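Narrative of accomplishments. A recurring question from our advisory board has been how the design workflow behaves on a single, concrete structure rather than in aggregate. To address it, we present the structure tokens for one chain from the evaluation set, followed by the sequence designed for it. No filtering or post-editing was applied between the two.
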């Protein structure tokens, strides 16, 4: 997207694989001298595993299906929002009926299921507390690394064992391995495919944002579409009670007053924009939509509709665009809930002075998707918006362990579903990050912006 103004400027404790008591992210002493020492130490440093309350790893203990999912997903290291959602948007539900008591693992299991790493059982259960077998563990690692049945073969576990040997998954694993995987074996398998697993982390996409630069290649056809007025749910998975595809194409056109079941669409491409679904959270709006295989795959929405409420974001730049009334307005290129979203301001909106790379989080007050006010923690309209880094500037991390940042001024608890943004000084912009980006000697700014009566960081901005 072309910028018309200078670019400006980002719990899971792995349950200790047995418990929820905190343990410092240092190598457990009982893996020293073992053949899996390098694997365990590497995964500890990466934040994929940790030790027990006694400071040990207990490498020969078995692990559960829930813990196996955690190790694999934490090794992949996807955006935290894809695993646990954010303070304003929940992660996808996995739907298993036996997850009571496993809320700490639910997001990781959901991610693993959604990405074909593991499956549930025909009776609707997942059996999260059941020990994972060695053959199941190597199968999960293969699937997570991108191996599909057409590459492996249909015979389980024989074809999977053979492929695992060829791919190096079983390097440093005894030939006569036990029926159930041990914690050391699980760490070794993940370590053996660490490069491949990390390559599977979904990349942050720069979706079309509704500016003049985002005109569709062709005029979207309304053929086969249905007209209705409805609302999007909070997770943007349904509209008017119908399921919305994750890959839904969003086009905006015209105003709400034009929308009716016999409306005529323009034949000029300039009248349309491609846009991002996230801007329409909770929005009630008329729409035209196409349903394919039971899900909405394409929508045409009015340009004067969208989310109403407070948006908390980092700002990467501004653009100038014409609104639906052909008035010149300022748009803000943001990362909102880790998604790339451009929000447009009202006519003559006062635009604050931005300082590039200062780690500042902003509150955008929106109505029908239009920004009415831009503020920092000073002058914010939301009930809760405060900075937890007390100097209100970049603050050095002296330690980060178990979702707690230690600074010279005290401790900051970080939510498991916190949005993480990283300031990339070379590119001069923010990018979405992961919890593993919070490290000793890096600088951060942390913010609480959710009204949940808990003082924890919903957003952490990291300076690389």
């Amino acid at each position: 997207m072309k910028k018309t103004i200078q670019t400006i400027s980002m719990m899971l404790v792995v349950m200790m694989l047995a418990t929820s008591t905190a343990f410092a992210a240092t190598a457990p002493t009982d893996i020293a001298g073992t053949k899996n020492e390098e694997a365990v130490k590497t995964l500890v440093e990466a934040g994929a595993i940790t030790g027990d309350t006694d400071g040990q790893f207990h490498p020969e203990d078995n692990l559960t299906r829930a813990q196996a999912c955690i190790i694999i997903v934490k090794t992949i290291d996807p955006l935290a929002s894809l695993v646990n959602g954010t303070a304003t948007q929940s992660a996808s539900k996995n739907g298993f009926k036996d997850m009571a008591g496993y809320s700490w693992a639910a997001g990781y299991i959901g991610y693993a299921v959604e990405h074909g790493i593991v499956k549930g059982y025909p009776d609707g259960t997942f059996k999260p507390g059941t020990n994972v077998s060695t053959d199941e563990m190597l199968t999960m690692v293969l699937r997570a690394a991108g191996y599909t049945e057409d590459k492996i073969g249909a015979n389980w576990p024989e074809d999977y064992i053979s492929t695992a040997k060829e791919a190096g998954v079983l390097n440093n694993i005894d030939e006569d391995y036990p029926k159930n995987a041990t914690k050391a074996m699980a760490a070794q398998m993940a370590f053996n495919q660490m490069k491949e697993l990390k390559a599977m982390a979904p990349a942050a996409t720069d979706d079309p944002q509704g500016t003049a630069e985002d005109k569709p290649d062709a005029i979207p056809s309304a053929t086969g579409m249905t007209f209705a007025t409805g609302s999007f749910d909070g997770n943007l998975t349904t509209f008017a009670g119908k399921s919305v595809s994750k890959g839904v194409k969003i086009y905006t056109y015209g105003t709400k007053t034009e929308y009716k079941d016999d409306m005529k669409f323009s034949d000029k491409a300039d009248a349309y924009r491609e846009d991002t679904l996230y801007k329409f959270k909770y929005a009630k709006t008329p729409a035209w939509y196409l349903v394919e295989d039971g899900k909405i795959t394409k929508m045409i929405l009015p340009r004067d509709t969208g989310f109403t409420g407070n948006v908390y974001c980092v700002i990467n730049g501004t653009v100038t665009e014409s609104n639906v009334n052909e008035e010149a307005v300022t748009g803000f290129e943001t990362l909102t809930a880790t998604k790339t979203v451009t929000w447009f301001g009202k006519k003559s909106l006062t635009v604050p002075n931005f300082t590039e790379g200062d780690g500042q989080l902003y509150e955008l007050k929106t109505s029908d998707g239009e920004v009415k006010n831009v503020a920092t923690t000073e002058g914010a309209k939301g009930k809760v918006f405060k900075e937890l880094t007390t100097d209100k500037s970049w603050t050095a991390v002296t330690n980060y362990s178990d979702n707690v940042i230690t600074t010279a001024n005290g401790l900051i608890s970080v939510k498991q579903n916190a949005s993480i943004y990283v300031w990339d000084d070379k590119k001069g912009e923010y990018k979405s990050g992961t919890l593993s980006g919070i490290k000793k000697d890096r600088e951060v700014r942390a913010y609480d912006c959710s009204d949940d009566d808990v003082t924890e960081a919903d957003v952490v901005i990291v300076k690389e």
